[in-house]
Amino acid sequence: MMGATYKWDAKDYAKNSTAQFDWANELIDKLTLCGEEHVLDVGCGDGKVSAALSRRLSAGSVLGIDSSEQMVALAGDNFPQNEYGNLSFAQADARALVFDGRFDVVFSNATLHWICGHEPVLAGVARGLTTGGRFLLQMGGQGNVVDLIAVLDEMVARAPWGEYFADFSFPYGFYGPEEYTGWLAQGGLVAERLELIPKDMVHKNAAALVGWVRTTWLPYTQRVPEARRESFVEELIESYLAAHPPDSEGRTHVRMVRLEVEGHKAA
């Protein structure tokens, strides 16, 4: 994750990020790796996606980066170099990548929506790629989680929560192909595909939905004093499920939209 100003509970996140991991594996399949590439994984989180990439590279390597010190530490513990010789991790900001022509592929899943304004990110992607190198990025896109955000908007506009959000501004960069077309061209990157993809995020029960909100909606939850945070999450989930009830098997659903961006570095 790239939310450098937030305090991540890396182990709790690892337990509540199944959907992100499943979607990452779908995205990795689209890379059609030959096994010799050097790959940069931007926003490696707890490391399991970087590890999945490394298993497909018999003669290549993966560097997973994240702005969270806690995430990078957990990733290193989970996937030590004595067991994953072609995999390493480092703390870095996606807005200030300093790699020069080091990577054949830049990959990112469920990360870049933590950043508002992606021009510096894409400049760093271009800088880090070899000429003709490829990138595949997926993130929350235009129209993402609108139902949950509608509940949050209502909550933070009234008592008792409004006092904690007096100077609040929307924290996510949910963009569409229109913005990205210009940003890619500015960065010297060639777009091959820009696509908004609807997704259904399914949690096995309400408790799993609580875990996802608790571990990933930090721009909201961490504005609330810790003593009241659990109550805030409980009210959010109750209100959301009142409008969007679980299905017949007790599973909860959240409408998502992913922006998927694929292309290469111009010659």
Automatic annotation (TrEMBL):
PANTHER family: TRANS-ACONITATE 2-METHYLTRANSFERASE (PTHR43861:SF1), TRANS-ACONITATE 2-METHYLTRANSFERASE-RELATED (PTHR43861). GO terms for molecular function: trans-aconitate 2-methyltransferase activity. InterPro entries: Methyltransf_25, SAM-dependent_MTases_sf, Trans_acon_MeTrfase_C. Residues 39-133 form the Methyltransferase domain. Gene3D superfamilies: S-adenosyl-L-methionine-dependent methyltransferases, Vaccinia Virus protein VP39. Keywords: Methyltransferase, Transferase. It holds the Pfam family Methyltransf_25. One of its GO terms (biological process) is methylation. It comes from marine metagenome. This is Methyltransferase domain-containing protein.
